[in-house]
Specification:
Strand content of chain B: over 45%
Order of helices and strands of chain A: EEEEEEEEEEE
Low-confidence stretches of chain A: none
Mean pLDDT of chain A: 92
Helix content of chain B: under 10%
Shape of chain B: globular
Number of strands of chain B: 12
Shape of chain A: globular
Distance between the termini of chain A: 34 Å
Radius of gyration of chain A: 13 Å
Largest interface: A-B, 23 and 25 residues
Mean pLDDT of chain B: 92
Helix content of chain A: under 10%
Largest sheet of chain B: 6 strands, mixed
Low-confidence stretches of chain B: none
Number of strands of chain A: 11
Number of helices of chain B: 0
Oligomer: heterodimer
């Protein structure tokens, strides 16, 4: 009964490939997020969806495309992978889209390595 | 605009001694502040949060933090470190108006010596 789950946990791929990371939350939350954590452990928001609607879209390359088929799922598709995409990607969820008050629950992360 | 600065990239303490992790923030509005912990190869977990109620906030696992507006600080403390406290700690700020984003500090790595 994991609250926020991600698959896969590890992803090793070649430059130029297309890959997807899946995220699911069973908390009944309305809002989901994707974060990127670089090699220096710095965390930065990439996207946020509230009830399947995109509400935060940071300056992320167009190669990254999130998809939210329903409010319990937020997937991340990455086209034409580059070396610089190597990082740990975290999915998170919260009750609503106002992070000032609500805890964000994080998944275990997906470590992406691009060779 | 909002940002946080974690003043120490690495803190090493002996088991049973106090832990102090320092965080200064910048915010255009009244901020909400959080401390999250990340154990190795795990996701982040909330330790505690400040959202304008009591300035001394108690969290899980014996941690607490004090919001000091005059010093724009939100330092995290624990009176007695345990081996299980070895982890990465993130100070996080959110403006209570604005763009609904969290801004993370660069993190502080805590090592606990036996």
């Amino acid at each position: 009964d994991t609250a926020v789950s991600q698959t896969p946990k590890y992803l090793v791929t070649q430059m130029g490939n297309d890959k997807s990371i899946k995220c699911e939350q069973n908390l009944g939350h309305d809002t989901m997020y994707w974060y990127k954590q670089d090699s220096k452990k710095f965390l930065k928001i990439m996207f946020s969806y509230n009830n399947k609607e995109l509400i935060i879209n940071e300056t992320v390359p167009n190669r990254f495309s999130p998809k939210s088929p329903d409010k319990a799922h937020l997937n991340l598709h990455i086209n034409s992978l580059e070396l610089g995409d190597s990082a740990v990607y975290f999915c998170a969820s919260s009750v609503d889209a106002i992070p000032s008050y609500n805890e964000q629950f994080f998944g275990p992360g997906t470590r992406l390595t691009v060779l | 605009a909002q940002s946080v600065t974690q003043l120490d990239s690495h803190v090493s303490v002996s088991e049973g001694t106090p832990v102090l992790l320092r965080c200064n923030y910048s915010s255009s509005y009244s901020p909400s502040l959080f401390w999250y912990v990340q154990h190795p190869n795990k996701g982040l977990q909330l330790l505690l949060k400040y959202t304008s109620a009591a300035t001394l906030v108690k969290g899980i696992n014996g941690f607490e933090a004090e919001f000091k507006k005059s010093e724009t600080s939100f330092h995290l403390t624990k009176p007695s470190a345990h081996m299980s406290d070895a982890a990465e700690y993130f100070c996080v700020v959110s403006d209570r108006k604005g763009d609904y984003k969290l801004s993370f500090g660069a993190g502080t790595t805590v090592t606990v010596r036996a």
